[in-house]
Amino acid sequence: MLSETLLESFALVKLQAVVRDASLSNIVVGFLVLAVTALAADYAYMLYLRSRMPPGPFPLPIVGNTFSLPENKPWIYFEELSKKYKTPLITFWIGRNPTVWINDAWCAHEILEKKAQIYSSRPRMVVFGELGSGQSSLVTMRVRNQRERDHWRIHRKLMHIGVGIQSVRGYREIQNNESKIVAYDFLREPKEYVKHLERYATSVVSIIGFGRRVASYNDPIITEVIALMQLAADLNVPGKSFPMLMETFPILAKFPRFMPWFKGVNARGQKGGHYFFHTLAEEALEQYAQKSPSEQAAMPTPYVKTLFEEGNKHNLPVAELSSLTGNLFGAGADTSSSTLVTFILACCAFPEPMKKAQAEIDRVVGPDRSPHWDDSPNLPYVNAFVKEVFRWRSVAIIGGQPHSPTQDDVYNGWLIPAGSWVQGNVWAIHHNEREFPDPDRFYPDRFFKDNDHHRPFPGERGYMTFGWGRRVCSGQALAEQGTWITVARLLWGFNVRKARDPQTGREIDVDIFAFTNGLNMRPQPFQCEISPRSEEIRETILREGKQALDDLKIHDGESRYKMSTFYQQQRRKIAEEPVIDEHGNIKIVKIKG
Ligand code: HEM
Ligand SMILES: *[C@@H]1O[C@H](CO)[C@@H](O)[C@H](O)[C@H]1NC(C)=O
């Protein structure tokens, strides 16, 4: 009886196990069938889209074309694909995500400028967006509907108050004085030319933003912020290794930050830089308030002050306000200084244009003073020279951030689906023989209509260095103005040439292709010789430099904060939320406890 029951129950257990196994394997099989079907359907849809989109290499399921990316500088690869397929637009699949690369100025103009109405958004960006500022900063902000559009307009407007064309004229003398100090520094310490240029670019945005200049190139605001920007720029280039590979497999971004594929991505998560910039802003407001009324009257109102007052009218969260000040540094410092390093490389590699520009400046300006913007109408060759600096090796080599259409668009019979990445390949655009014959040659003469290298180009500037349409660089006017005065002054003041081997006296060559790999590129370190052009000029540089240091004294000041140690010091503050009161002042309030 007992054993019977036992037997029965044993059989029952067994039966149950069989049933369970069956259902388990059924589930597994069912799941597999479902997965394969989903995969097939997904892939079929990819191929369907592909058949309607611009040409490009054949994508694999799930991974797309990601693994055919080169290790470095994908913009050159996309230029090659464009030539191979004989088409200005290329579709390249980053995972299941189609990206369209525009390799031609006219198409970029037709699409990103003329259809700016629908091309003013940004796509979903995993690595640079979601893992960084969360696409709440102007640079990455999406504009897909009316609500987002209104929000984005406020950001553009607030950025414009700071660095729009009107305000930028008011920053001329700041840039002028700071660039006099660059010339002065080049005299004292020519070998550190890169650091001087970084200091210049950072100091200009720091004066504009905070009212406080950056006097030393060892100031952590330079060394840390530029390093951070270069890291971020490296991360924003399509790639087939981690962490960029998360763009191909977005699901991986949902894992905890200690997983190995996050290497290099800000381990602190979303909070990122904005508390840091917020604290700097607070400090700057304090320092400004301590200045005497006459000092305040002698300087432009720091952008943070205006920004917090204006931002308050729109009820912007502090994180977003801070991101707007952060943009000055994030978007403005590394880009502007890299452009100037490129200028130095161009002078080393192509001495002729430098000499021609110097002859023009000697005629118009002479040795007793340095050039000023008022001279610009009389310096057509210098103007063309600056254009060529922007064209020859543009810093934002893939046009900064991708654009994304908010609705399906058809261009030249090709579909560009809503939400896809559309990236202007500035390398290919500025490197196209049709618009720029002999494109690797630094040749300012090409901008003169009667030159045999002159070709038509959409838009009056003759280059697309600052992007397109409604997302065009907010800091363009500031960057163009500052680049002009610094390039003009350095051409006036210095001979730049290849360094010579101290033993043999032979010139050390420079490589005009040796640039960094990030989406903001700059020349790899190179040696050069920078020397004043004459004794008279040397004296003028010294005189003007000392005067400028004196003039800029009202902007002297230091920060108590460093990004690298900020988060340890500030751990307490992060549990608290900054808010703005009705007077535009920032207050810190506790969130909990
Ligand atoms: C040589 C210097 C610079 C270059 C080459 C440059 C280039 C660019 C490019 C290509 C874009 C993307 C445009 C697009 O999506 O079509 C951009 C965006 C932006 N830049 Fe610049 N930039 C420079 C300096 C600056 C400066 C000095 C500032 C601010 C002070 C600045 C602020 C911004 C901002 C806020 C955006 C985002 C605009 C938006 O998405 O709506 N940039 N820049
Ligand atoms: C900078 O230089 C000019 C003269 O070139 C001067 O008028 C101006 O006040 C200076 N100061 C500042 C803070 O820009």
TrEMBL record:
List the keywords (alphabetical). Iron, Membrane, Metal-binding, Oxidoreductase, Transmembrane, Transmembrane helix
Cite the Pfam families for this sequence: p450
Q: Report TM segments.
A: 27-48
Top-rank taxon? Eukaryota
**Could you tell me which InterPro entries the record lists for this protein?**
Cyt_P450 (IPR001128), Cyt_P450_E_grp-I (IPR002401), Cyt_P450_sf (IPR036396), Cytochrome_P450_fung (IPR050364)
- What family is this? Belongs to the cytochrome P450 family.
Q: What is this protein called?
A: Cytochrome P450
